[in-house]
From TrEMBL:
Taxonomic placement: Bacteria, Bacillati, Bacillota, Clostridia, Eubacteriales
InterPro entries, per database record: Acyl_CoA_acyltransferase, GNAT_dom
Organism: Clostridium carboxidivorans P7
Entry keywords, A to Z: Transferase
Alphabetized PROSITE patterns for the sequence: GNAT
Pfam families: Acetyltransf_3
CDD domains the record matches: NAT_SF
Name of this chain's protein: GCN5-related N-acetyltransferase
GO molecular function, one term: acyltransferase activity, transferring groups other than amino-acyl groups
SUPFAM superfamilies, per database record: Acyl-CoA N-acyltransferases (Nat) (SSF55729)
PANTHER family, alphabetized: ACETYLTRANSFERASE-RELATED, N-ACETYLTRANSFERASE DOMAIN-CONTAINING PROTEIN
Keyword Zinc attached: no
Length: 168
C-alpha cells in the first residue's frame, strides 16, 4: 500500500492523538511521550516540528487519502557526524503489515539523499520489534549489529538493532 509524506499541519493533531493513545505504539518508541496523549500534546509536537531548524530536523506526516496514519522524521547529528542522521517513525496499528512503513521510509530516504548533504541514515529499533526491522530491511537498510543492553524501556533492559543506509 502506498502512502504520501507531507509537512505537518495543526489540523493533524486529532489523528496523532488517536494514534499515540495506543500502548502498543508507545512501547516501541523512545520515552518522553506522555500517556495519555492529548490533543494539546499533539499540537505542541506539530508546532515544534514546523518551527524546528530545517537543516537538522526533517519531519513528515505519513498519510493515506490525506489522513495521518503515522509520523516519520530524520534528525541530523552534529560534530564529526554532521552528515549522518537518525530516523524514527511510527504507524497506526490498523496499518501495520500493509507496506506503509516501507513506502514512507523509502520516500523519506530518497528526499534526504536528493535534498541534503546527509550521506548516512541510521535507525535503532528495539531488537524484539521484528516489524520495524523488516521495514528497514525492505527499504534497503543494512543490519550492522545488535547493541546489547542498549536501552531501558518500561523497566526492562533491551537490546537494539542498528541499521543504516548510505547515499550511493
Amino acid at each position: 500500500m502506498e502512502c504520501t509524506i507531507r509537512s505537518w499541519k495543526i489540523e493533524d493533531a486529532a489523528n496523532i492523538t488517536e494514534i499515540l493513545n495506543n500502548k502498543k505504539i508507545l512501547d516501541n518508541l523512545r520515552d518522553g511521550l506522555p500517556y495519555p496523549y492529548t490533543e494539546k500534546d499533539a499540537k505542541n509536537f506539530i508546532s515544534a516540528m514546523l518551527n524546528a531548524d530545517k537543516n537538522t530536523t526533517y519531519a513528515f506526516a505519513i498519510t493515506i487519502n490525506n489522513k495521518v496514519v503515522g509520523s516519520i522524521g530524520v534528525f541530523r547529528k552534529d560534530n564529526i557526524h554532521s552528515q549522518t542522521a537518525e530516523m524514527g517513525y511510527y504507524i497506526e496499528e490498523a496499518y501495520w503489515g500493509k507496506g506503509i512503513g516501507t513506502s514512507a521510509v523509502k520516500q523519506v530516504c530518497k528526499y534526504i539523499f536528493q535534498n541534503t548533504d546527509i550521506i548516512r541514515i541510521f535507525a535503532e529499533p528495539f531488537a524484539y520489534n521484528i516489524g520495524s526491522c523488516r521495514v528497514l530491511e525492505k527499504s534497503g537498510f543494512l543490519y550492522e549489529g545488535t547493541l546489547r543492553k542498549n536501552a531501558v524501556k518500561n523497566g526492562v533492559v533491551l537490546d537494539m538493532k542498528l541499521y543504516s543506509i548510505v547515499k550511493e
